[in-house]
Write a structure and sequence with these properties.
This protein has 379 residues and is α/β, with parallel strands linked by helices. Helix content is 32%, strand content 30%. Strand 1, helix 1 and strand 2 form a beta-alpha-beta unit. 44% of the residues are buried.
């Protein structure tokens, strides 16, 4: 008997995720979206397409009623309520909606309804959490967790040397939201785009890294003296964005412009969206480095994971979409095969404690040519 899966959302992540799941003989796959054009772009005949308003909660619950597993790939602004509705309907879920709410608030509801949810299971958050959790669980004491991650254009073009694979609105929000980090075992808040440092990466060269608010659940689930996530860009980028931020270009209060009320943020966003827009044929790369240091049997140890991934010209799939979507599709296979299955809501770093889960995830991603290189070193 095949597992009936429905993917909610046929966008940048939902599309490759759906297509990948449909290659698995164990799944019968449906994808739903309110945008008919997106559905038409998925041409595989053995995938069922449903035109639906996923924001209509009663309609959503009816839509998913005959499915065994739901993948929540809706936009962040509606992601939490969508997930809550899925749990209320008694359906297991792979969740990559990346909303601002705390997913763990639904843990008791998951247990009450006897369902399992894996939340934030993309690339970052996602594999960054899983592998940080893996390393932390194998140390007696965690001193430092560093996550450096970025999606970049493969070909650098001035002035920005950047293209927005995801929503440019979300990108700008990342540049204005204070960054939460751990220092001396306590949560601290720092301005974004600060504490710029440079790192070298094979096949890329020198990149700069700056503070961003990407730790999410790691702030509460891993006890470390120091923990931070930094965004990677080509050198010089952060100071360009800081120049805009410090001179009011991201202000939200509307001002009068020739009799019209407009906020500087609206104007800046419109200008940047055009300049950051992915054009036909644009190729991107994803770069990530995770370093976890601590003590094991009184020895100082460091776990390092490196990812380098590129746009796939054969499938015309962006790297950031590949690394995010395939993490979720492999997690769906992992849940379906019962490698780990337990009612409740799980963030990836909790699952990282289990060798069988990490081995399954890394192996499944490697089959899709998303490869994480691991090093363990005594310092």
């Amino acid at each position: 008997m095949k597992t009936k899966v429905i993917v909610l959302g046929a966008g940048l992540i939902g599309k490759p995720l759906t297509i990948d799941l449909a290659t698995d003989k164990n799944f019968e796959v449906t994808v739903a979206d309110r945008d008919g054009n997106r559905l038409e772009e998925i041409e595989e005949e053995h995938i069922t397409r449903k035109h639906a308003d996923l924001g209509n909660i009663p309609g959503l619950k009816k839509l998913i009623s005959n499915y065994d597993l739901v993948v929540n790939a809706t936009p962040g602004f509606m992601g939490f309520n969508t997930l809550k509705s899925v749990v209320e309907a008694g359906k297991n879920c792979i969740d990559i909606a990346f909303y601002p709410e705390n997913a763990m608030d639904l843990d008791e509801l998951c247990k009450k309804n006897n369902v399992m949810v894996i939340s934030d299971i993309g690339v970052a958050p996602g594999m960054s959490n899983l592998l940080s959790g893996y390393a932390a669980a194998r140390l007696d004491e965690v001193d430092q967790v560093d996550i450096f991650v970025g999606g970049l254009p493969k070909v650098r073009k001035l002035p920005w040397e950047y293209k927005a694979v995801f929503s440019p609105t979300d990108v700008i929000e990342e540049y204005t939201r204070p960054a939460r980090l751990i220092e001396n075992g306590e949560t601290v808040v720092k301005p974004p785009l600060t504490e710029i440092e440079t790192l070298n990466f094979d096949r890329v060269g020198t990149l700069e890294a700056f503070n961003s608010d990407g730790l999410r659940s790691l702030l509460y689930t891993i006890k470390a003296k120091t923990m931070r996530e930094k965004t990677l860009r080509y050198p010089g980028y952060a100071n360009k964005i800081k120049l805009l931020a410090e001179n009011g270009f991201f202000d939200t209060e509307k001002i009068d412009f020739n009799g019209n009320k407009v906020s500087p943020l609206e104007m800046t966003s419109k200008l940047l969206f055009e300049q950051w827009k992915q054009q036909e044929g644009d190729e991107d790369i994803t770069v990530m480095r995770i370093m976890v240091e601590g003590k094991k049997a009184q020895k100082n140890m460091r776990y390092t994971f490196d990812l380098y991934d590129e746009y796939d010209p054969a499938t015309k799939t962006h790297s950031m979409a590949r690394t995010t979507a395939y993490t979720a599709s492999v997690a769906a296979r992992m849940m379906n095969s019962k490698v780990f299955y337990q009612p409740g809501l799980f963030v990836p770093e909790i699952l990282g404690k289990y060798d069988e889960v990490v081995d399954f995830m890394l192996s499944g991603l490697a089959e899709r040519h998303v490869i994480y290189k691991k090093q363990i070193a005594e310092l």
